[in-house]
Amino acid sequence: MSQSNHEQPPILDVRGMTKHFPVGVLFNKRQVHAVEDASFTVQCGQVVALVGESGSGKTTTIRMIARLIPVTQGEIFFEGANILKTEPRWASMDYRSKVQLIFQDPFASLNSVHTIEHHLARPLIIHKKASGRQEIHERVCDLLETVELKPAAEIANRYPHQLSGGQRQRVAIARALAVDPQLILADEPISMLDVSIRMGVLNLIDKLKEERGISYVYITHDLASARYIGDKIMVMYAGHMVEGGDGEALMKEAAHPYTQLLLSAVPNPHAGLRTDNGIGARGEVPSLINPPPGCPFSARCLKVMKPCRQVMPGQTVVQAGHWVRCHLFGPGGNS
Ligand SMILES: Nc1ncnc2c1ncn2[C@@H]1O[C@H](COP(=O)(O)OP(=O)(O)OP(=O)(O)O)[C@@H](O)[C@H]1O
Ligand SMILES: [Mg+2]
Question: Do residues 257 and 235 lie in contact, with contact meaning Cβ atoms separated by under 8 Å?
């Protein structure tokens, strides 16, 4: 994976983003602490992989960035502008065309009664990227060829159920590309695909990054695909970002016991990569409803210390471009 230009200001800069969902009624009102104080940046042409187990807050994070749900607290800067302040509450057409979403289930995101041409023509028309039947058809075919679906004219006439899962996900990517986005938020785009075709979709994502300079926030459960595609990796646990940094550095020198636990489950194709570090796990993920203070992983961590149960540590830089929030490395606050 190529290195991105870190001299430029980030295309996306998320600061202290928090989401608490109110649940319950009357005297039993409670809050689900889905995302707590998440901060990260995405450079132009960079893939930031967000990794964590189910319920860790990954989808909620990108739904806030896409402005599908309001944030409870925090700021989101896109191309330098605080989008929560400078735009109306529900995202403008301009922001929607620059920031696109790709979902986990390509079948659910395509309407079975419409042809592929219809799905791709719609954003072109709505965002005024093409007009007239011929121009729209040509653009649709271009998009299909870009995502390596050929023969494009024939695929355009098909219905979603006439395509394989991998082909449908490529159509979903083509639909996102129709509006010339700068940032794609991809929510587990390969997890429902057959293992044999996952690599093809990952390589397509990478190709679009290289050729078009598109940036991504790429969500996955699986550290192996994060390692493959991510220039930067952010690890989430129970709503908190617990470790983040340059993909290779983080994989070689994973600091947080939770990241080490994830790593121990990844097959090791490279010599020197940690896979067996003696970090096991016990206990369960804490409730996100009124969670206890301290590090959310403390209930499972075999290296737990007294402060871990009392206060969530700040960020500690372990090496350039790599930080962790773990008391083993200090109380944090040096970044
Ligand atoms: N609308 C909502 N109301 C209440 N709680 C919610 C809502 N949406 C999400 N949550 C809760 O927020 C937490 C984080 O959910 P989220 O979908 O972001 O996790 P995730 O990391 O994407 O999980 P998965 O890998 O299973 O998709 C979960 O506990 C979930 O139940
Ligand atoms: Mg999710």
Answer: no
Would you tell me which CATH number, out of the four given (3.40.190.10, 3.40.1550.10, 3.40.50.300, 3.40.50.1370), belongs to the domain 12-113+159-329?
A: 3.40.50.300
Residue 144 and residue 116 in contact, taking contact as beta carbons nearer than 8 Å: yes
Q: Domain-by-domain residue ranges, the chain?
A: 12-113+159-329
Tokens of 194: 């057959």
b/e for 74-84, b at 16 or more Cβ within 10 A? bebbbeeeebb
Quick check: 301 pLDDT over 90?
A: yes
pLDDT confidence tier of residue 333, bands split at 50, 70 and 90 = low
Whole-prediction pTM value?
0.91
Token code pair at residue 253:
């020198």
- What's CA 6's distance to the chain center, in Å? 19
Q: How far apart are CA 182 and CA 177, in angstroms?
A: 9
Tell me how far the alpha carbon of residue 224 lies from the centroid of ligand 1, in angstroms. 22
Cβ atoms of 14 and 76 within 8 Å: the answer is yes
**Strand pairing report for 81-82 and 30-42:** unpaired
How confident is the model at residue 87, as a pLDDT? 62
pLDDT beyond 90 at 158: yes
| Tens-place pLDDT, residues 32-53 | 999 999 999 999 999 999 999 9
Question: Across the beta sheet with 81-82, what order do the strands follow?
Answer: 30-42, 12-23, 73-78, 81-82
Alpha carbon of 160 to ligand 2 centroid (Å)? 23
CA of 130 to the centre of ligand 2 (A): 33
Q: Is the pLDDT of residue 224 over 80?
A: yes
Structure tokens given for 140? 């649709």
Residue whose CA is closest, atom 16 of ligand 1?
57
The mean pLDDT of the chain is: 89
Look-up of token digits 């121990």: 264
Ligand 1: which residues within 6 Å by Cβ?
21, 23, 32, 34, 52, 54-60, 221, 288
